[in-house]
């Protein structure tokens, strides 16, 4: 039996990051975690592109355009959708997740979901670098691993 697994070595890896400006207190912390992880694992500064979009709803379109350029090995999507007193959360979170999954399947480019979907800002802060670690860092590591995994499968 042949087992395929990705590694966390990122030589010659091109990464795009799509970051929502809405809830920037959270998004900026996720970005710091992602950049730190990418650099620690060997992704060069000039191999990282950052695209800022107004809100989480705009992330899938930017991710799709980036994935379809053929210039990136993975696209990391970062932001936060926090449930409030309105139905806005429901209209954004589900379509966002579905849209990103579709882009990954359609393009064959790993699209990493680093958009926090929480009930409160406190929960988001916990996942952006306090008690629960930094999910930006987690998805950056997953991006590197997926890029390397797909290389082993496609050989």
List the helices and strands and how they pair.
Blueprint: E1 15-20, H1 24-40, E2 48-53, H2 59-69, E3 74-82, H3 88-107, E4 111-118, H4 121-127, H5 135-154
Helix pairs in contact: 1-5, 2-3
Q: Radius of gyration over alpha carbons?
A: 15 Å
- Silhouette: globular
Strand order of the largest sheet: 2-1-3-4
Q: What is the averaged pLDDT score? A: 94
Low-confidence stretches: none
SSE order, one letter for each helix or strand: EHEHEHEHH
- Strand-pairing-aware structural class: alpha/beta
Q: Note the beta-strand portion.
A: 15-25%
Largest sheet data: 4 strands, parallel
Q: Helix count, per DSSP?
A: 5
Termini separation (Å)? Answer: 16 Å
Beta-strand segment tally = 4
Share of helical residues: 40-55%
Question: What can you tell me about this protein's structure?
Answer:
- The longest helix is centred in the middle third of the chain and has 20 residues, at 88-107.
- The two termini are 16 Å apart.
- The protein is α/β, with parallel strands linked by helices.
- α1 (24-40) packs across α5 and α2 packs parallel to α3.
- It contains five helices and four strands.
- It has helices spanning 24-40, 59-69, 88-107, 121-127, 135-154; strands at 15-20, 48-53, 74-82, 111-118.
- The protein has a four-stranded parallel sheet, with helices on both faces.
Concise structural overview:
By secondary structure, the protein is an alpha/beta fold. Helices cover 48% and strands 19% of the residues.
Offer a few descriptive terms.
alpha/beta, 4-stranded parallel β-sheet, 48% helix, 155 residues
């Amino acid at each position: 039996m042949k087992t395929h697994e990705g590694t966390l070595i990122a030589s010659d890896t091109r990464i795009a990051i799509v970051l929502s400006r809405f809830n920037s207190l959270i998004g900026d912390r996720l970005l710091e975690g992602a950049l730190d992880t990418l650099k620690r694992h060997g992704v060069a500064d000039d191999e990282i592109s950052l695209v800022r979009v107004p809100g989480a709803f705009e992330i899938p379109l930017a991710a799709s355009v980036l994935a379809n350029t053929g210039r990136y090995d993975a696209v990391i999507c970062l932001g936060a959708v926090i449930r409030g007193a309105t139905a806005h959360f429901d209209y954004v979170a589900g379509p966002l997740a579905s849209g990103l999954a579709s882009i990954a399947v359609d393009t064959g480019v790993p699209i990493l979901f680093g958009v926090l979907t929480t009930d409160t800002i406190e929960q988001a802060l916990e996942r952006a670098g306090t008690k629960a670690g930094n999910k930006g860092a987690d998805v950056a590591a997953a991006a590197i691993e997926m890029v390397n995994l797909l290389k082993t499968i496609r050989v």
